[in-house]
What does this fold into?
Amino acid sequence: MSLSKINASAATLTKNRTEGSIVPVSGMCVTCVDGCIGMCEIGKSAYRGHEVIYPQPFGVITTASEKKYPVDYSHFNIMGTAVGAYGIEPDSDQAIFPAVNLEVTFGHDRGIKFHYPWIISGIGSTDIAKNNWEGLAIGSALSGTGLTIGENVVGMDPQAVMKNGRVVDTVELKHRVKLYKDYQRNGYGAIIVQANIEDTRLGVHEYAIQKLGVECVELKWGQGAKDIGGEVKVKDLKKAQMLHERGYIVLPNPTDPDVIKAFEHKAFKEFERHSRVGMVTEESFAERVEVLRKSGAKYIFLKTGAYRPADLARAIAFASKYRLDLLTVDAAGGGTGMSPWRMMNEWGVPPVELHSLLYRYASYLHQRKKYVPPLAVGGGFILEDGIFKALAMGAPFVKLVGMARGPIAAAMVGKTIGRTIETHQVPVYIERFGQTKDEIFVTASNLRKELGDAEFEKLPTGAIGLYTYYERIAQGLRQLMAGSRKFALEYLSRDDISALTPEAAKISGIQYVMDMDNAILEQILNI
It folds into this structure.
């Protein structure tokens, strides 16, 4: 059985002509006919070439792998119990699911506090991020969770001011930081600014710390979606030339007269902007951490991707040695922007395997009494069951789950509903709940009461959508935790989940469901 859809996908706007008869090895139609207009990925590549590497249409989609991995988080189940309670009195009147505490604190001084154990772990310079930033920033701030401003935001800002190759003023980064901070409440949550190699050269972290008052910064080695630097499509020639001038790799060269002529004649409609890949060494890593601390960074994070096991070991070893405040490990298959489609499907270590290795390496450090940084894991998580399993899989080291596509989807839906309300064209599917924000969004009454009428009316519906989505996940997670009799995150453990197959058990070290509780069964049965 093929694990990938390898020659046609909605992500590349391609399909097979003989959809019912496809060669499993190649994904080609069983009969490839002379005269076909080329609907599959091979055919489309014959006339659009490298454009077909990337998901389409750019700017209005998020994408993630279609590959079915041999083992995934659905191969684990959550274990409940009928006995006792952790973190609360074992009293039926007290041990109710609304009493579950989902707050998490971390950082070298435990000064970062979130209402919920998840974070948006990197939304950068893509149009999908920019067009939905209001909802993402305000919704995250109101919820008291973390939001990471991803790579290349400054470099992509046409209004950013540079002096001697370093940023001295921006519009976009200032806007993104301010929007979050304006809605942050009671010190919960955090806005994090990420930097790749281009951002580092531009001095983005120093600018964010010293000019924008950002406390949390993140070094970026990579992500789960791809093995190269960030990329976007650019439809404006002047912007492509600006990015070329700022040092980005822009393809084709927007300063070449022949390229300019071809673009003006619509031979192609988009330029590609690429970031360089970083070259990790311990010496340069230690030096950069020291520079950031001297610049005033209060908390320093690292995000790494689905690289080979040795690189994961380097990430946690460096984060331990230089006492970082969070290490995020993003597994293969994820993605929010324009990662190459085949790379997204076929590259990297999948979630269960990567997170199992992470637990193994963290345990190794812990056993040797080394500092283990707080950990976050990413890899396609969207709802409470996945979050529970990820936290249990990595317990006690994993404190947060990184998400992106789920929150973006919630913000986009909220925004779209707002537009239909404004135009008095609420779809029938939604109209059954009402015609106004207060009727449609189930959290509206609480938000209105908490913020007051004037502030509530200012809220973009994208933010209400994200807030409401988070509220659902939180309640669902509380229910799952109460069923396992764990009333605070600190009590979650690896035996709160079981492996459903011997293969899943072997990879993860989680007990096979048929072997669970063997140590106490004889004692229970010996009555």
